[in-house]
Design goal:
The protein is an alpha/beta fold. It folds into 2 domains: 6-125, HUPs (Rossmann fold, 3-Layer(aba) Sandwich), CATH 3.40.50; 144-273, Rossmann fold (3-Layer(aba) Sandwich). The protein is 33% helix and 28% strand. The strands form 4 sheets. A 10-stranded mixed β-sheet has the order 3-2-1-4-5-14-11-8-9-10, sandwiched between helices. Strands 6-7 form a two-stranded antiparallel ribbon. Strands 12-13 form a two-stranded antiparallel sheet. The radius of gyration is 18 Å and the shape is globular.
């Protein structure tokens, strides 16, 4: 799962979307991989794609990084999810936009929709946040010191647990794991990832996760994503607690889609079955 080899950078060429580029470039450089610059345009935007893409590719952040440019027409969320499958993508990097109360009640943002639909991990950014990519002498590097894994010990968290452990081990970061107590006993502390500093808290999950991330000065939160059908359509939407973590986190959030499992919910031990 890690290091990431193929990173999808969806962009509408706005300054806001550009905020995710350095993370895409840094992970591609670390994994000796590539960045796929991906844009969904209507007929009017097609004419400007080449010049806009050239400007992005010439960014110093991508110096020495293998890049590919892809332009499609269609509905953005579905097109991005399909591109992740078609191009064997390991990671998508997206920047969140602010939303008002009405939009939060009746629909998700584009970034949240991407997280919900994505078949692979999504790094969700909400600038300004704690930044774990540093640029020195024209080079960018990943400088992760602390990774916080938010887990509920259910199958939806198993893939996130594996990925968080790999990232912490390979990048030499501290791994912390938090579980917000519901109905399970404190004996669950024995099934946290090996080597992780464990935290068992009581309260509203997103609040405790965000609070601990701030207390630890965490550079990255890793969380398994669970989705459900929207009341207002057939599209998939994020669970409210996950959405709140993404929107309130003091650092980027790596959202990892659940692996298929053979054990029913709820479960404390899972067996991962490869995706087909």
């Amino acid at each position: 799962m890690f290091p990431f080899r193929n990173i999808l950078f969806p962009t509408d060429f706005s300054p806001h979307s550009h905020a995710a580029l350095k993370y895409a470039a840094a992970f591609a450089r670390h994994g000796a991989g590539r960045v796929v610059l991906f844009s969904v345009q209507d007929a009017k935007g097609v004419a400007n794609f080449q010049s806009q893409a050239e400007e992005v590719v010439s960014d110093p952040l991508l110096k020495g990084v293998d890049t590919e440019r892809i332009l499609v027409e269609g509905e953005p969320t579905g097109a991005i999810a399909q591109a992740a499958i078609d191009h064997d993508i390991d990671l998508i990097t997206v920047a969140m936009r602010g939303r008002n109360r009405l939009s939060r009640a009746f629909g998700s943002s584009m970034a949240e929709a991407i997280v919900a639909e994505s078949p692979c991990a999504v790094l969700a950014l909400r600038p300004p946040q704690r930044d774990f990519v540093e640029q020195q002498d024209g080079q960018i590097e990943i400088r992760l010191k602390r990774v916080l894994l938010a887990t509920n010990f259910r199958p939806s968290s198993s893939a996130a647990t594996q990925l968080a452990t790999q990232i912490a081990n390979q990048l030499g970061a501290e791994l912390h794991a938090i579980y917000v107590v519901g109905d399970y006993s404190e004996q669950i502390s024995g099934i946290f990832p090996e080597g992780a500093s464990t935290h068992i808290e009581e309260g509203r999950p997103y609040q405790e996760i965000v609070k601990l991330a701030a207390t630890l000065d965490a550079d990255l939160i890793v969380i398994g994503t669970a989705v459900h059908g929207s009341l207002f359509g057939s599209s998939q939407v994020l669970g409210s607690e996950i959405e709140r973590v993404i929107r309130n986190a003091p650092c980027p959030v790596l959202c990892v889609p659940a692996a298929r499992v053979m054990t029913p919910l709820p479960a404390l031990v899972t067996q991962v079955v490869p995706q087909t």
